[in-house]
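Thread title: Can someone regenerate the structure for this chain?

I was given the following input by a collaborator and told the matching structure tokens would be attached. They weren't. Posting the sequence so someone can regenerate them.
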Amino acid sequence: PTDTFRQSYFYNIASLQVGDDLFVDYKGTRFAYKVELIENKAATDPSIEGISEQSKLTLYTTELNDDNKREVYSAKLVGKVVWTKNIPKVEPISD
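Best answer:
Regenerated them for you:
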């Protein structure tokens, strides 16, 4: 079971840093995101799941830390990954 946890996509979420790249596959397209902000927020803070004017990805922990808060990771959409001559490249997407 421990190895299964370590292989989970979110097991190492705490090692994310501002500037890290994230990739999400959705309906046959791979989208590229860049981590912009890492915050501690109260578990009841409604902004965690709030609507944004920009396309972004928000990940957050379900376990609370010693301050009774959770880690929230916000990443902005950078583009989608396209392949040209077997070489991946991030192609910008306009909102």
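The chain has a mean pLDDT of 86.
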